Amino acid sequence: MMTRDEYDVIVVGGGHAGNEAAAAAANMGSRTLLVTMNLQTIGQMSCNPAMGGVAKGQIVREIDALGGISGIIADKTAIQFRMLNRSKGPAMWSPRVQSDRWRFAEEWRLALEAIPTLDFFQDMVTGLWMEEGKLVGVKTGMGISIRAKSVVLTNGTFLNGLIHIGDKNFGGGRAGERAAKGITEQLVKLGFDSGRMKTGTPPRVDGRSLDFSKFEEQKGDENPGRFSYLRQYEITEQRSCWIAYTSPEVHDTLRNGFDRSPMFNGAIKSKGPRYCPSIEDKIDRFADKDRHQLFVEPENWNSVEYYINGFSTSLPWEIQVEALRKVPGFENVRFFRPGYAIEYDYFPPTQLKHTLETKLVENLYFAGQINGTTGYEEAASQGLMAGINAHRKIHGESEVILDRGQAYIGVLIDDLITKGTEEPYRMFTSRAEFRLLLRQDNADLRLTRLGHSIGLAAEERLTRLEEKERGIENLKSKLSTLSIEPEDINPVLEAKGSALAKQKNKIDTYISRPELTLLDLLQIPMVASLVDLESIDEEVLEQVEIDYKYSGYIHKEQENVEKMKRLENIKIPSDFTYEDISSLSMEARTKLSDIRPATVSQASRISGVSPSDISVLLVHMGR
User: Fold this and answer.
1) DSSP letter, residue 92
2) Predicted TM-score of the model (pTM)
């Protein structure tokens, strides 16, 4: 058995979680090794060629604010940008980019190769290298043992992956790639609980065979934004996506294949993502709906391959073809490859600490779908935090844990650790209690100083943040002292259908009116002569307007965050014996003993632990 050099951190898997983990650890100074089964598929977008979306876009901006790479790659390879939910409040605004799948993977590879302290090795990791119950590295399929001080597992859907297409199934972690064997079995022997989950993907088709005249065009934003606060890449050209619709005839055709569907004939026993169901699941669960939307999305700048978002399926491929050809515009569709479902092993995340280190094996971290999540963004954020904490622990530095009032990433990890999940976990804005504070526009204000302080966010990011903060402060200072006469503002108010002014007022009093924007007010001649609009950054304008319009709600949420933090500060000893407290409910004793919450705040969020249980806990802790 050959042994390679020792590393600080070994990351297993080259997907979104693995890439962010490896980049974070290496950029912070750890000697890092990324081991993956195929170096040609690093950064592969296994499912839809897009980053962001509702709540997911906020996560990408948080990754970027901390010094991660996903936002930069998304900007560099974007072929369309849209800010979703603009008609709603700013807490709901969510950036999304359609990406060039080929370039996305290529740019990830190049970005990782540019990090001097990061090495690569192509092989399948078949198990952990343990000595006397301690983790000392990994073992690979070629019989190579590699030493490491810490290991981050980001295996995606590859752990005993099983692909289903109709009544056929075969091992694989992704179409055309083999499954990973050995790791699950070893972890179970070490005492870990494991489970199975399912996800799926739709067909990819030849765009030359589609009639786009029968689709609705979905263009990108007229003035496209970007993910990264560094603003390195600007989108100047965009490709359209398209919308199609199924019909009762399509649904009937799909139902004809249900007896051969692994979803319904018992071949698939694991749970799939509730919020991203297959097309057969949709027509079964929503039988009253006579049509469903399909999004026809380009895979690249120049390729004719299209991704049929909304048509995820594991039906026999001939049923897929027959049904899709009954959708207007798809009458002559040619498949590049059929949709399929995939089952894979995961490990319930209640077995982790908030650092994503496992409770059973020291210096072993899990990130991504191995923890029961679904989605590139959820995986990438976990990889980032696992990489940060793996690096910091082996260098004797304090852990980095984001709380629920600080980031969507904090909500995601806390949900996983505290509540666990029995179905693929997907982030939504509704999961965050403080979503008005956790907006996509202010992720840099929330997180960049932290990223810089731990050595991940570069000096350039801190400089940009400080420029933005000075701009916000300067503009607010001017607005707070600026008064405006009725004759100056009433023409604008009348044009906007807003109540007219009867007396001189401070301009900031008008900004809270929902029908007015800050830009409307700054263009009033009298105001424009005092405030140079051309010199104000668009991010500063947006931030100031949101702060004024929602100041009352923001202040209330900040108060609630402070209340939560007071409970977070009450630590629970790791050896606390809940079984001895008879006044706790039996369910609370069981749940608290299993999950071992680190703080009273975390304990309060565990399903089955009531407010009265928390009161009992506080009494026994002398509080």
Assistant:
1) T
2) 0.92
